[in-house]
Amino acid sequence: MTAETSQTLDRGLRVLKLLADTDHGLTVTELSTKLGVNRTVVYRLLATLEQHALVRRDLGGRARVGLGVLRLGRQVHPLVREAALPALRSLAEDIGATAHLTLVDGADALAVAVVEPSWTDYHVAYRAGFRHPLDRGAAGKAILAARAKPMAECGYTLTHGELEAGASGAAAPLLGVTGVEGSVGVVMLADAVPERVGPRVVDAAREVAEALQ
To answer: Which residue numbers delimit the IclR-ED domain (predicted)?
Structure first.
């Protein structure tokens, strides 16, 4: 902690991070141990966060992330979209295919930013807001692959015809971005994805990750 920072705010943010990392919530005692502060401090932190609906406590007294976090989260997608657009435009124009940024939304993959190429005679119509299961399509499968592999081993994922007949996709996961789980990819009308597309998608995913850091 430095003189310019708030110890109370720091502790409150640490509480939210600890709660976000568990599916079962945490007791006051557990939070006290993890934070290294006494239970009275934890009670005050939780009471304040509850007033803003950022924390809720169940009947057993376990604290969990509250629904107020969702209101804050709604502002995340526009910020992420804005940061990703330059890399997506470059990818779409370079490859001549529809480029997209996809984020995890529960059990689904949700397209939050889409850029179509300006010079092609035809391309796949793909819209922001389109969602599909994580285990279908290149965008979702790239995210699942990143969950299963060390960061150094993650490359790109190719699929064909899983979301739209006659369409192929390539996607690479976003890596090293705290709090954001997603992928960058392209979708094209082709029986197979050209060899150069996979590495280009990896580069675009890296550019987006850097823009978000």
So the answer is: 68-213
Q: At what angle do helices 7-20 and 39-51 cross, to 10 degrees?
A: 80
In our burial notation (b when 16+ CB lie closer than 10 A, e otherwise), range 166-180 reads: ebbbbbbbbeebeeb
What is the C-alpha separation between 48 and 88, in angstroms, rounded?
41
What is the average pLDDT across 87-105? 96
Integer angstrom CA distances of residue 115 from 29, 67, 167, 184, 211:
49, 32, 16, 11, 17
Confidence band for 138, pLDDT divided at 50, 70 and 90? very high
End-to-end CA distance of the chain: 22
Dihedral sign for Cα 114, 87, 89, 94, please: negative
Residue 167 contacts residue 161 (beta carbons within 8 Å): yes
